[in-house]
Amino acid sequence: MAFTIKVNGTDRSVDVDEDTPLLWVLRDDLALTGTKFGCGVAMCGACTVHMDGQPLRSCSMPVSAVTGEITTIEAVDGREAKAVQDAWIAHDVPQCGYCQSGQVMSAVALLRENPKPDDRDIDLAMNGNLCRCATYVRIRAAIHSAAKALEA
Ligand code: FES
Ligand code: FES
Fold it and tell me: Which UniProt keywords apply (predicted)?
């Protein structure tokens, strides 16, 4: 069946089954491989994208249920995204990197909602993003740095 979804500012048409997860549409049909597959059951956060700016587990969203504009790691931008990306580099956050696009998408969404998160806010917003390399301490520090940069 044909679906048109808006991804990274452009309408994209795909011909897939209606229950195809958005993750596979992004990766297999649109070649946007920055979004990763981890658990496939909305437990690890590796597949996080934004729908109308809100974080969304793309592995568990059928393409037929997509109602808003999708943004992936390839196109996330704006003040918060720049602050998060700069802080990620400054704190040398990624280890293997596998979980990191999902982590960045969740961190950007958090800072858009809450520009001055405390540790608890960060833990709550990020606890659905798992990291097998255990970069959690650096992630928290980087989010605080990004928040500080956004104050300027
Ligand atoms: S792959 Fe989607 S949450 Fe794990
Ligand atoms: S950096 Fe390796 S899984 Fe998170």
Answer: 2Fe-2S, Iron, Iron-sulfur, Metal-binding, Oxidoreductase
